[in-house]
Amino acid sequence: MSRLCRMAAALFATLAIAPAAEAWGPLGHSVVAELAQRHLSPAVKAEVMHLLALDRTQSLADIASWPDEIRNDPNQQALWKETRPLHYIDFRDPSCVYVPPRDCKDGKCVVEAIPHYIQILSDRTQPDAARLQALKFVVHFIGDIHQPLHAGYRDDAGGNAYQVQFQGQGMNLHRVWDSGLLGTRGLDWKAYANRLDTEGVAPLPPPIAPLGNPVAQWAEESCQITRDIYPAGHKIDQAYIDAELPVADSRLREAGRRLAEVLNLALENG
């Protein structure tokens, strides 16, 4: 059995026994990264620090939004064009069941991108620069896949074409979930991570049949959440915030836990 297959099996085992929960803007991505970094094993944290040193940083939060930021870098336009479709998945049916040929043509979606970059990250024969880039994509895409509107099924570009009124201004629903909801707490990323981390280990949703692909399950969870987050009358009121902000918080916590598990599995052996 290949290392990637063993990692996938281990991830699924974790999901099976767990108790019964641009994507996020910079705030959300930093929160997910910080939650994960706090729960790395000592050996894995050392390896992460080794890779981050190439960018002269010591925080996963500092690299968590890099795959979005390259869109504005003239020197990275080819990479941005290549990886842009990997930030999301468009389900083609409200059943939210992942069908690769239909939902991820040619492997160009976040469900297939995550294991691809995990494989590069875990391969110690790869140059450190390639592994660092893979780390950036793994951190970011695990955040992305937990943002519900990065895995929707409606024909509205993940809520980008669905306009709402939020706090007295017009914006699209995708932006509300990227940053608007989280911003209502008035916390920076470290304070937000502190708040969520005090709640303990994030409980995870139960496995979804058919079993065997944990990354697909993460996307299916997000897709199922989108069934209930479109506001009546296109208006985001306080009742909506009170109902949906805990959902967003749960997805951040789940993403942080799963990212830590992925990195601990991918980098456990030096």
From TrEMBL:
Query: TM segments?
Result: none
Gene3D superfamilies for the chain: P1 Nuclease
- What biological processes does GO assign it? DNA catabolic process
The molecular function GO annotations come to: endonuclease activity; hydrolase activity, acting on ester bonds; metal ion binding; nucleic acid binding
**Which residues does UniProt assign to the signal peptide?**
1-23
* Tagged with keyword Glycoprotein: yes
Which keywords has UniProt assigned to this entry?
Disulfide bond, Endonuclease, Glycoprotein, Hydrolase, Metal-binding, Nuclease, Signal
Protein name (record): S1/P1 Nuclease
Q: Which organism is it from?
A: Dyella psychrodurans
**What are the leading ranks of the lineage?**
Bacteria, Pseudomonadati, Pseudomonadota, Gammaproteobacteria, Lysobacterales
